[in-house]
Every structure is written in C-alpha cells, then in structure tokens.
Amino acid sequence: MDVVVGLDSGTTATKAVTAGVDARVRDVVSVGYPLLVPGPGRAELDAGRLRQAAVEALAAVAERARERGDRVVGVALCAAMHGLVPMDGDGAPLGPLVTWADARAAEWAQALHADGRAPALHGRTGTPVHAMSPLVKLSWERAQDADRVAGTPRWGGVKELVVAALCGGPQVVDRSCASATGLYDLRAGRWDDEALGIAGVRADQLGEVRPTTAVLPGLRADVAAATGLPADTPVVVGASDGVLANLGVGAVRPEVAAVSLGTSGAMRVVVPAPTVDPGRRLFCYALTDEHWVVGGAVNNGGSVVRWASHALAVEPGSPEPQGEEADALDARLLDEAAGVPAGSAGLLCLPYLLGERAPWWRSGLRGAYLGLRREHRRPHLVRAAVEGVCQQLALVRDAFAATGVPVREVRATGGAVASPLWVRTLAAALDLPVRVADSPEGTGLGACLLGLHALGALPDLDAATALVTVHDPVEPDPADAAVYGELRPLVERSTDALTDVLTALDALDDPPHPV
Questions:
Q1: What is the rounded CA–CA span in Å between residue 359 and residue 352?
Q2: pTM, whole model, 2 decimals?
Q3: Is the dihedral of CA 81, 85, 89, 94 positive or negative?
Q4: Radius of gyration for the chain, computed over Cα atoms and rounded to the nearest angstrom
Q5: GO terms for biological process (predicted)?
Q6: Which residues contact 514 (CB under 8 A, 6 or more apart)?
C-alpha cells in the first residue's frame, strides 16, 4: 500500500503514524522525551532533542513500512501549538523551547487585559491573550532583555524546528500554527502589526507563512540517509495538533464536534470562515482556507483521576504507582465512582488542579470542592472530579451556541474515553450523543489525511467523516443531563465568585501563577 507518514511532534513525545487512503492506521512509533521543569513556573523542552526525535520516529516507521511492503509516498507534519524557541538563521535552536504550559508570562497577559488591548488582539488573531501564547511569551522575554529579542535571527515554535531539521531551507511555518501564536491576523492573512509591536519582533524574524497543504521540496540529505527514504520524498508542511485532531476523528463537517480527552482536554468544531465569539471564550485556528477550527482547551482531563488515585488511594510514604499499575488504580477508582448517582450527592468540583484555560482564560485559578458533607466518600470525590471536567467542556459547548455554532454530534478520542464512566458523563453533560473514535491516534491520523489530500490522493477533506471509523453513539441519559444542566450555572457562579480568593491563595506561593 502507498502510505503517508503523519509525524506528530508533541509535548512529551513525537509519534509517527502511517495510513493510506482507507484511513486505517498501519503503524505507530513513539519516541519520548522529558518535559523539563528547571524552575518554578517553567515548562520547557530540549529543542535539539525534539528535532532528533522527529528523525528517529520517521526512520523507525519507515523501516516498518518497508518490512510490510508499504511505500512511503509522503510525510505530513503535525506540531504542538504555542511553543516559542530562539533560532539562528538556519533554524537551529539557540535555547530551549518554552511550551504552552510555561507560566512565567502570566502577569504580561493580565496587563494586556488590564489596559484594554486584549479583546481586539483576540478578535484579530483568534488566540486568547493568555500566558500560553507566543505573543505574551515574547512580551515577557522583551521585558527581560529587549536587545536579545530584537537581535535573535529567528523566533518560532515546534513546527519551525521540525521543518528545519527535516528539510532545511528558508524558515517556513504553516498557517495553522501561525494562527495559534497570537501574532497572526486571521482575516488579513499576515503577521499583525500591533501584536508584533507588543512582542518586540519584526515580521522577518518569523517564518514565511504557507498553506497547510504546501509541499516542501524534500528531505535533507542527512535525513534521507538516516531514514532510508528518498531525498525527494514530498513533505507536506501540515498543521497544528489541535485542528488535525478534528480531521483525525472525521469531525470536519458542520455540527460535528471533536473532543480530545486525555491528560487535558479540548472541544472543537470546524466552521467555513474565521469566527471569534463575542465573549472571547473560544480560540479560532486555521486548517485550510475552507476549514477553520473554533473551540476551547481545558488544562485538566484524565489528570484529575490520576491526582485522586495518588491523593486518595496511595498510602502516605508509599511510592506512587507508575505505568500499568497506575492505570489499573485509576480504573478501580472510576469503577467505584460509577456507583454514585449523577451530581455526586450535591458535591461540586472546580477541577482546576493545573489552572485553567477555556472558557475562563484566567491565570491563577485553583481547584476546589464545594458542598462537602460528612457522608461524602472517595467515590463521590472521584465522580465529582470527572463531572467537573465534563462541565468545563459543556461550558465550551455553551460558548459555541452563543456564537451561533450548532453541535449535533460529538466524536471523542483520548485515553480517558476508554472509561465508560467518562463517556457517559461527557454525553450527559453535553446532552449530545458521543461516538468514540476507533483509533486513538487522532492527530497523527489527521496529519496523514491532510497529507493524502495535499498529494491529491484524497480529493476532499470532508470525505474524512465517512472514512474514519467510530463506534456506535452513546446517548445522553435524560435524567443525568437534567442534573448537569441544573449544576452548570453553579459552576459558573462559583468560579466567578471564588476567582479572587483562588488567585490570592495562588499568590501566596513563590512560583508564578499556573496557566
């Protein structure tokens, strides 16, 4: 079979996925690397290791393809959003890559909100003004050392690093990743003058923006030798992981949303033109000229159950479970929680253990349980945490409705949706049918499909809806949906009422505010 490699460079691993025109995943190779936390509020990657991992993953999956008798006809790139790294003129890193989770720029985001510039920036760029965004990161970097920011030959993110590592040549970035920087005017189709001024950079320090379907000339000679692929193998510049997650689960037609629910979570819908909601609760990023993705990401997903496992089920002083042991403990707690009725006997969880993004975009939020009574036990706390995450995604769905973006069906992927409780709770909180994708490799498969489209093997991205295999829908339980509908306004009211208290508590710590 002729296959395309979807090369997905993420925050903790690079995955290489192969698939053909039948949209079935043939092989997956993962090359991991650590998220570095060298100090309070910091979250970085070794940029050189990230580049090396891309070559290693590509070489390993190409070898598997040869063993199968498959022919690699192209490579399509997928990259995590919101990273920032200084580079030389050839795209080699001059320092670590600062990831979306780095919190050091939180005060600069708050300043842009305080002086009234944030709404217009969000409206033009589609990216919330938040510590995660490269715009805000650069404004923080500029405050530390303006000469360094202005004198660095290039600034980019994960995609620019990988393109330079694989292809060399002039620095390029796809329109999707550019649209997630807070520096790119979606409708004008160019770097935004005001955002560049705030960041302290020039347009020529950023990548040349290409369509996501642009085909780069091929592989560098050393990469071709390392991978065993021909040097003229087409490389499709590709898109960001968020928008490709929609494509990978076939959620590209109107009214079909994609939910990613792993350690963190997100809900996204494809629309035909750039769309930013009036309340500035949603992001808007590019997929193609005819496909734009609006949605919201939440910091806390399956991580809330992992926290509960360690906090509530591990004896003090005992080593924390890892790997399969940790997964088994999570599953046991979820089974216990499934016996608790919807609403957790009046217990409400604000699941902001890692801060929160959508729909709030406020730095410094912390988690809380409200309504605790002496009869509440561990299963109630676990179920309330699961419900809290699903309610955050339901608030994103509410923002869709307020923006005039209807949703009729949800397609879900991610490690958490292996749990029936997570899927049932999500369906009831959203009050929508949820269909779980057959393959967990949503972003990598999405890159393959975009690559096949760019190379002419898949004429229409909308065809992915029919190609991608999903399970039968899990329908929302009406009684549970009614309970969550009653509780959701309390989530909003309690978050608004407690924001000052939670951020004041956060300020008592030395580390910068969590994102």
A1: 12
A2: 0.93
A3: negative
A4: 22
A5: carbohydrate metabolic process
A6: 41, 103, 299, 354, 355, 363, 364, 365, 366, 506
Whether the CB-CB separation of 50 and 162 falls below 8 Å is answered with yes
Instruction: Kindly state the greatest CA–CA separation across the chain.
Output: 67
Q: Could you please report the per-residue DSSP string of 143-176?
A: HH-HHHHHH-SEEE-HHHHHHHHHH-SS-EEEHH
Partners of 191 in the β-ladder: 184
Tell me the pLDDT band of 286, cut-offs 50, 70 and 90.
very high
| Residues contacting residue 158 through CB under 8 Å, at least 6 positions apart | 9, 50, 79, 80, 81, 83, 97, 177
**Which of 427, 440, 354 lies closest to 393 in space, CA to CA?**
427
Contact 442, 23 (CB under 8 A): no
Letter string b/e over residues 385-403, b meaning 16 or more CB atoms within 10 A of that residue's CB? bbbbbbbbbbbbbbbbeeb
Strands (E), 56-185: 71-79, 85-87, 97-98, 154-156, 172-174, 184-185
Q: What is the pLDDT of residues 494-511, one digit of tens each?
A: 999 999 999 899 888 755
Instruction: Give SS3 for 322.
Output: coil
Nearest partner of 243 among 258, 254, 228, 225, judged by Cα:
258
Q: Answer yes or no: are the C-beta atoms of 16 and 29 closer than 8 Å.
A: yes
How confident is the model over 70-129, as pLDDT tens digits?
A: 999 999 999 999 999 999 999 999 999 999 989 899 999 999 999 999 999 999 999 999
Residues 6+ apart with CB under 8 A from 36: 42, 43, 44, 45, 46, 96
